[in-house]
Amino acid sequence: MGDSFYEYLLKVWIQGNRTAAVSHYRKMWETSMKGLVSLVRRTTPSSFAYLGEKMGSSINDKVMYMDELACFAPGMLALGSSGYSPDEAQKFLSLAEELAWTCYNFYQSTPTKLAGENYFFNDGQDMSVGTSWNILRPETVESLFYLWRLTGNKTYQEWGWNIFQAFEKNSRVESGYVGLKDVNTGVKDNMMQSFFLAETLKYLYLLFSPSSVIPLDEWVFNTEAHPIKIVTRNDWAVSSGRSGGSQESDRQLRTRKEGRFRVHH
Fold first, then answer.
1. H or E element: which one contains 54?
2. Is 117 a known active-site residue?
3. Which of 87, 101, 121, 231 would bridge with 64, disulfide CB 3.0–4.6 Å?
4. How far apart are CA 254 and CA 256, in angstroms?
5. For 225, which DSSP code?
6. Of residues 174, 170, 38, 191, the one with CA closest to residue 113
7. What beta strand segments (E) does the chain contain?
8. An example of a Gene Ontology BP annotation on this entry (predicted)?
């Protein structure tokens, strides 16, 4: 339930231009990823990689499950892989690709080709739908977008197109798109979540757009898919030797605090 925290550790580092001033966020993210790697499991017989969930201090390896929400992780891992040494970078990129394959199969494993909310991985079985609704979530296509941009592998476009076609077939109605109460039967609900427009369709659009559209070396997306400009300045706090106690720094800090807490009428 703290997924955005891990995502933001990485993205604050990127948004801060990967400078020394924000390097501690990168270190925290890398520490967190060691924990994530310890949760990776693989199914039998098909060896789908997935992320187990730790309940308290223990993991039940007999009955494991993974939320579709966790399918943001392949994109995050791919985005963060470039900050490692070449060998480590390849390891994390490979894990991202393995997890993306699992998430894509969340969709492919159902009659509607749309993913359920979560999946169980029982001992000796690959995957089965747990909670069977689909509310048009963006996480899997978000990861496909990152992997396409970072690898150039058109397979991720093909997977995204298949998911889009499944939305068109099962969720399209006269006034928009709706979720499914059950991905096995195709029974519809009567609601279009706002994130379908703000995130799911946005990432699908970008998946088929040139890399010059919101390039990842100039922009970073927050967890709701809003693009934020990367700070392109040098690491002035370090390179210029400016003191945090300077008059200018004090003025900037005071302005920020006043702006943050000012009451607007």
1. none
2. yes
3. 121
4. 5
5. S
6. 170
7. 40-42, 49-51, 63-67, 118-122, 128-129, 172-173, 176-177, 219-221, 227-229
8. carbohydrate metabolic process
Give the number of other CB atoms < 10 A from CB of residue 252: 11
Closest of 166, 121, 123, 119 to residue 141, by C-alpha: 166
Q: How many residues make up the chain in this entry?
A: 265
Q: For residues 170 and 180, is the Cβ–Cβ distance under 8 A?
A: yes
Q: Under a CB-based contact definition with an 8 Å cutoff, are residues 107 and 115 in contact?
A: yes
DSSP 98-122: HHHHHHHHHHHTSTTS---SEEEEE
Q: Tell me if the pTM is above 0.70.
A: yes
Alpha-carbon distance values, 81 to 32, 92, 97, 128 (Å): 14, 6, 12, 30
Q: CA quadruple 144, 146, 152, 157: dihedral positive or negative?
A: positive
Amino acid at residue number 26: R
Catalytic choice (7, 97, 98, 117)? 117
Annotation-wise, does 43 bind a ligand? Answer: no
Distances (CA, A) of 68 to 51, 86, 131: 11, 29, 10
